[in-house]
User: Fold this.
Amino acid sequence: MVRLRTIHRCTECGAGSPRWAGRCPGCGEWNTLIEEVEQVGGAAQTRSAAGGPPGRAATALLLTDVGADGTEQVSTGVSELDRVLGGGMVPGSVTLIGGEPGIGKSTLLLQAAAAMARNGARCLLISAEESPAQVRLRAERMDALVPGLWLIGESSMPAILAAVRDVHPDVVVVDSIQTVWDPELESPPGSVAQVKGCAHQLVTAAKAGGPAVVMVGHVTKEGALAGPRVLEHVVDTVLSFEGDRHHAIRLLRAVKHRFGPTGELGLFEMTGTGLQAVADPSGLFLADRRSGNSGSVVFPSMEGQRPLLVEIQALVVPTPMVSPRRSVSGFDSGRLSLLLAVLDRRVGLSLVSHEVYVSVAGGVKIGDPGADLAVCLALASAATRRPVDDDMVVLGEVGLGGEVRQVTQTSRRLAEAARLGFRRALVPARAPGHAELSVRHVESLFDALERDLGPASAPPKLRLVGGPATSTGNEAG
Ligand code: TYD
Ligand code: MG
Assistant:
């Protein structure tokens, strides 16, 4: 007999708790527990990673005897998607693509499915949210009406699995996993148990020599839809599609990837006819930059294997508040606190009575410590209202002693700066130079700040005072 129980499940991590709590005991997120009814015992199945039927024991092999067949990547026909996946999609793999509603997930997957169908693959789109007529309309707009592209407007799991058996596709796109449901499961559509249950059936189908599966998952805390984070551990690849819905730039990155590195960034522009790859990302990110602004510094970042020049902006405003606001966009707030402390102690630039804002223009998120020096220079420039030279890029990690440390791939970063017409670079002491740039090497933050702020455009409210507060072996200052 089937027994039912009431449980409170976290929509973010899937942890269960018999009682409701304001904060999830699993992941610590607030207000994510919702009440659900679940089946106890019974249908739990074990799946062998080899893709064999549940319950059958696999034989152990020597690792050297294990073949790597079936893990070659097949191009999706969308270059930026291939870049993020490290070449393409692996047959039988399961991918989850997350992003806010309206960001362009359905558009991207329709484009990829059409491109793969054009290359001879059989692709099945399962549209559980939009009617087939709506999908057709979008396909017309994007020139995606190609043979080999199948569509079913269905949200019930048995019908979906039947369609997969009928069509024998190479690729299945499920849009979205939160709207498909299995009538066998007692929980209501959209609940965590339904999302997990349906995803599990799709994963099983894919691993049993079936198609590559791509699932769409909406990321939102509002509404009753379950967050796709509960699925992250059952899929091979998790992609995140980001960007500001009101701007055209879209960023695609891999959060988890079993078949390659996760550092690559895919860049798209949403146009009237679908998503287009961005041809010159650095040029695009710097296009709106105003010259002569204080608080603006260009940082040559590396996104995976691709150099990308971004503008880092800082704004510093005096305030009588006891704990003034620190706000970051595209940069780590903990890292900002650390840099503010280093600026205070090692350079004598104190911003304790100032609101501080740091933003990376264009919606890019920077995790590269090589941005430290650029952020410090932007802060000092904003505080003193002295602009940094327009034609200079700034690169270097800043240590707690105020020393400037080396970063990886300096040459490639500087080459990209030279290509875009920059003339000067501020880099760590032992970093390589570049033939087309006038490169200045600095040992310490103090050394960098002292000389590299241009003339004041307004009477500075703050001045850079004194030398390094404490001398460390690294400071040449
Ligand atoms: P969509 O792919 O439906 O987003 P998601 O599946 O992530 O919810 O696309 C959302 C937006 O993209 C929609 O507001 C309209 C816009 N769009 C274009 O600008 N150009 C296009 O060619 C298409 C298909 C959509
Ligand atoms: Mg959609």
In short: The first strand starts at residue 3 and ends at 10. The chain has three domains: 1-42, 76-278, 284-457. The CA atoms of residues 301 and 308 lie 5 Å apart. The first helix runs from residue 79 to 85.
